[in-house]
Amino acid sequence: MADPADVVLLERIDEHIAIVTLNRPEKRHAVNGDVARRLDAIVKQTEADSSVWVVVLTSSGGPTFCAGADLAEVSAGRAADLSTPDGGFGGFVESKRNKPWIAAVHGSALGGGLEFSLACDLRVVGENSVLGLPEVKRGLIAGAGGIYRLPRQIPRAIALEMIAVGEPIDAARAFALGLVNAVVPDGEVLKTALDYARKIAANAPLSVRESLAIARAAQETPESGSIRAMHAALERLVRSDDFQEGPRAFVEKRAPRWSGR
Questions:
Q1: Structural domain of residue 54, as residue ranges?
Q2: How far apart are CA 52 and CA 44, in angstroms?
Q3: pLDDT one-digit tens code per residue, 213-247
Q4: Residues carrying an active site annotation
Q5: Same structural domain for residues 71 and 186?
Q6: How far apart are CA 31 and CA 28, in angstroms?
Q7: Same domain, 157 and 231
């Protein structure tokens, strides 16, 4: 019997970057109970590890980034296993994450695969990738966040078209719509995602997390609420070591040495 830990791999790259790899190529990286539980545990592990500042989510190969739900599991009556209490579908799409996550997508990202990438902060896709929410073609809905995250990411009319028609779009159109950050040759997807991760990891981690927390909530938060959150974040940052380190490094004409404290 395969080790359940093998279905999602966790690897450390550089000092502050982790790579999380979906690893069920024979099932197009579809989500079963083992994937959901393992990914839930990895999210909690990387959140608790103060030395991890950025996480990249990818898959181990094949023509599909993630096929979404493993329909064999659903048909066997195990649909509930595909979610966790804290993480929602796949143990991921509803998880509480303060640290930035970057999706490195090669191949198709349809249904739950697109929803995984929408739950990340940045998205890098291969030039041959297609992205879509085909759930209505199967009598379902994009219930892992797609039906509310997609309209926040791209123009409303296009999002409603993708949701109601169920047809995918190619990588070039996804980039033109602002759905992804970069489109690159398929073999350069992970490298490009790691380039983004290294640029983020070069910044003060507390500043990144505080900034992202406010930015993530900006669309559904009144401006007065964002202002309050911003001032609270500034008060926390002022008390941090890194708040002193940034100006000091600038004056001393050297790269800052962030502690994350």
A1: 4-201
A2: 12
A3: 999 999 888 899 999 999 999 899 899 998 898 98
A4: 115, 135
A5: yes
A6: 9
A7: no
